[in-house]
Fold each of these.
Amino acid sequence: MILAIKSFMKKLMLFLLLINNAIILNAQRSDIKILKIDRKYETSFISDEIQVQSNKNNPFIAFSIALKGESINKNIDAIYYKDMQNEWQLFTTDENNYEHDAWYAMSYLDKGITKTQIKIIFKKPVQLDDVTFNFYFPKDTEYLSKQSQKEDSSVTNVKKTEDCGCSRPETIARNVWCPNNACPPNQNPVATDVKFLIVHHTAGSNTSNDWAAVVRSIWNNHVNMRGWSDIGYNFLLDRNGNIYDARADDTRGAHFSGQNSGTSGMALMGTFSTVVPSTVMLLSLENLLVWKSCDKSIDPLAIAFHASSGLNLHTIAGHRDGGNTECPGDELYDLLPAVRNNVNAQLNSCVLGVNDAILNGFAVYPNPFTEKITIDASQVDAAKLKIQCYDVVGRLVFDKTEVLTNDSLSLNLDFLSSGTYLLKVQGREKVSHIRLIKE
Ligand SMILES: [Zn+2]
């Protein structure tokens, strides 16, 4: 009898050890520390040094903070944290700060950091109730994928929707950006009839060598710090043009300043206040918008009444159109009129089979090209054209203004290296973004 119990205990211990190891190997860890403060500060608050426990195989550490206190939202001027060199760095503010008594921010720390500290500068004296710190160790995606028990297909199948002719762009499924079900989805999704497509930026870094880890960090921040049931947005996009499935499609999110019914939220990861998104990222956004417009019978050029906000909104709107925020950044916001036109042209093309270049106003041929292109502007009332060309990472390659002869223009682009470019053609009121391929 005793032997049987001993044997059972041994097996149990071994079992527990195995489970424990499996968890340690696979888990993305989230350390939460809450400081109860309950004090009034006149101009600034500096925390003690906070220890960051080391953890292997991470591309970075996502550091989120939540500040609670009466009317704190209006009274924060800036937040800083200490980096590896012990220098103060500006903490990135969460673009979804709309609660009066709370303030949220998330930045990325170097993976080797062992301690940090925060400093808050107030505009007015503030009663600070508590500060919550969250250190999230997302793990390297490559490492997690190797640890993952089952190999899932890397992308959602591309499927044509039944009701329209525009195909759903490929997206990266949740079990790929977060293996082992470590980032579970919303358990009680609320369906919503999507009529507005809201464009965001995440106000985070524009560069990363592990975007899936960034997506997991956003999940952790939204779920474990904001207390939401899932990522606030329905889709996330990275600068390489990848689209990530976030909150389930056609379910109500948490992204439009508390007025989310009837919307779908699409967020470009990065900050686009002074930088334009990369060409491939912009093209992916347009493909996503084309498919959703087609899928939900949305006219991309229309303005309509949005009941939840009580506002008349563009059907493709920026977050700032419905809330007090910089989102999606000046540069991305300024691109939205052109994005609507491109989406409309592409939608007409896939629904009706109409040539998108002509609907756009300008036709460019040949495309792909090897040496020269011709821009046909016969559908546009203009005497000269302003032409800007961007490479795949959004850098301006050239910017010129040319006079039209016989409604067209020939350009020698032999100097461009092979690849994809975004050509912005502008003649008087008309602007087109054309994807140009140099062979
Ligand atoms: Zn936003």
Amino acid sequence: MRRRFLAIFLGLCVSATAQTQVAAKANPRTGAPAKQNPALPPKLVLAIVVDQFRYDYLTRFRSEFTGGFKRMLEQGAVFTNANYDAAPTVTAVGHSTFLTGAMPALSGIVSNTWWDRTVAKSVTSVSDDKTKLLGGNGTGSSPERLLVSTVGDELKISGKGGKVIGISLKDRSAILPAGHMADGAYWFDGQSGNFVSSTFYFSELPGWVRDYNAGHPADKYAGLEWLGHKMPSAGPQLYNAVDSSPFGDELLQALAMHALSAENLGGGPKTDLLTVSYSSVDYVGHRDGPDSPEIHDMVKRVDKLIGALIEAAEARAGRGRVLVAFTADHGATPVPEENQKRKMPGGRLAWNTYRAAAEKALNERFGSGKWISFSADGVIYFSPDPIPGKKLDMAEVQKVAADTIRAQPHIGRVYTRSEIERGALGRDPVDSRVRNGFNPARGPDVLTVADPYYLFSATGTTHGSPYGYDTHVPVIFLGSARIRAGSYAETIGVQDIAPTLATLLAVETPSGNMGRVLTEMLK
Ligand SMILES: [Zn+2]
Ligand SMILES: [Zn+2]
């Protein structure tokens, strides 16, 4: 019954779309004349991420918003129960899911950093030895490891796309949402204090970026104090410190404003796409936690920045011609000590002790070996030949390690590669998120999920778990006549954003899409 209703509902949506595109045709079901003013296509898509923005920041601080959050909450389509359906809930995974609709199983972006078995070294989601940094020194970055297309890529391929540009403090957060065919992606370099890019995009930085850097924009923050945090004097120390203050987001906002005018975004005949990811809430959140006065202030400030960005975009493209999609790349875990104070569970775990216990058990069972190629909080990649010459059953090796870790305190679940590959996982949210987050070529051999609120982290807080505090994020759409404003309580996934944008833009759905179109908000 429900399926039949859905089919009818989808059918209505299709005919509504057809009407707006062929304005003269009468509705074939009712015979009523079609609307005469079809929605004009967006001239600019603003795809906005705030890094580590828990959903409840919107509800906790709502009465204080005056900028972008106020406007989006009042005039947008607001999804109050959007979650990441994949783990780990980290920056690269969130930013790649946002505009591809693909989770790590298909996108190949399995974490911020992982072990590349083909070259036997650890890589980041965007590291690319073939490229050089432009505007700074060293190796550049590119979207090469992203296996699928983004909305921006599909816009370009369709012929309807103009410029596609990504901006953030972090390379992965600028590069992954923008995609393969982007005209440029820009991020902040803590060594030089410049916004940089890579030779993947062009052979030298565009003039407007060089001009922006030439003014040494970060230097004006030298010596400033914010809520007891004093900025160092100009130089690499300052450039590394601005990240974890409101000044980092101010710097990237200024660059985004420059991009709007210098690249004439929203001013051309085709649809441009600008992705902006505000990073500083994440750095401050890691240090001070989601319940800190610092985060409260950061959220109020990013509200104003987003409001100004939307207004500047509309000043160029016209009101009603800027389509905004807003989300976060993950949430955050409460600081364990704060949680304990309010009688909630939680604590800190040292991953090294879990790893050491696994290695000890493996030595006892199989003989002394060099077991691990790579390991980081909760994950293990085994060496291809741990005891040279001894042919080991690797499924058994995985099981011994997993059983050992599982028997230690505060461990929720431990998964092995062989279990995941043979489909042995259950269907609850935690198992589903682990399955969607696993890519056979790039995923680990053992994967550990601690109990809720327990962190493999010695200070501050972090994110990465498949639990609600890390998966629940805002999703808001604003600015198209085809969007029905309001609050939507249905449970949705962040992977639903990309196919919905593709539908609004009438371009092909990105190639790895695992989501659905949010038809409930479409007129
Ligand atoms: Zn992040
Ligand atoms: Zn983070």
Amino acid sequence: MQQHTDRDPPARFPTDPSGLPEAGRPQLLELADGDTLKLRVGPVAKRLGDTTVRMLGYNGSVPGPTLKVAQGSEIIVQVTNHGDLDTTVHWHGLRLENKYDGVPHETQAPIPVGGEFTYRIQFPDAGLYWYHPHIREDYTQELGLYGNIVVVPSEPGYWPPADREFVLTVDDLLLEEGRIAPFSPVETSYAAMGRYGNVFLVGGEPDPVLEVGAGEVVRWWLTNTANTRVFNLGVPGARMKLVGGDSGRMEQEELVESVLLAPSERAVVDVLVERPGELALEHHTPERVYRLAAVTVGEHGHGSAAAGAFEALRHAPELGVERQRLDRWLAAAPDKVLALVAQMDDPAAMPAGAGAGDLCLSDASRGDQRPARPLPQMRHEAAGRRPTICQGHRAHSPTRRRSSRSPGDL
Ligand SMILES: [Cu+2]
């Protein structure tokens, strides 16, 4: 197989799905402490409505397998890269050893095409997390490299009771004339993380049907894997209770009409439908309503114990304690006030060689926006601009820096 590094990108990304294995449905993999998972990045042929496109999958599916693990456990993940360009795997939201967090050039060397890397992944916290690449997410994540992780709490009763559950990704993909719109092989297409799409995918499917029973409490584990789009999700006609988010359960559960999910965010919602019928998972914007999935509500399931407990809005005592612990810091006078300043170039006036922008940390406690003191290796002077002291240093070319990191990504 031809080898590429991110210094040597392919002339153009392949788009032909001919001869590729058809993308499968994501497996649910229940992994025990000490288990080893083999995760293979590779191209797949994905049917979307009446067209078939070339996408990328973990273990041959879009999304990749859903990992179900116990809180406090640890697994080994052996990643082999048979994709189109270098990759890493970032474990979004998990607290783990920095060297396994998949940040290219910073914590690990990129995994070249044909190469492999072994991760040791820990799950200290219950809740919903996910994994995706940290190189050219605008391309590789858009094409299907993402998967969910459900960490089962050690504490019984951590979550309220539910009758069934769906673990789903919500995403969008840009199709033009039946093909995925092209990407630049050398730099991020559109904004740093990617672009809006015109086809919605729920769990990798453009028009899925979810079956539930009337009177059941159905837990929806939702991850926004879109590169740019914020989703405003609801199931009109059903009752919805927000029970969890990015860091496990909510401190205070609440009944909601919809949940707003920015890219990378997660929500755990319990949905109760009282009568049989046809509903839909919808995305609402101020101007439009998009139908993402059909929800068929069958006759069965009336009167479950979970439905009886649906009205209760629970409080998480450990988060209340955590909040109290932080109160004294919130009440304390600051030792120093810092201002985070985003300095953006005017693209129309961008001088040759200048980057797209810098995220700078300035000392506002001095009463101005100038940095207090240059830090070693943190000084950056772009042509034609005043010097700025930046939170990161430009170790790589502007193209690689913009394409391989995710500003705002944890
Ligand atoms: Cu992430």
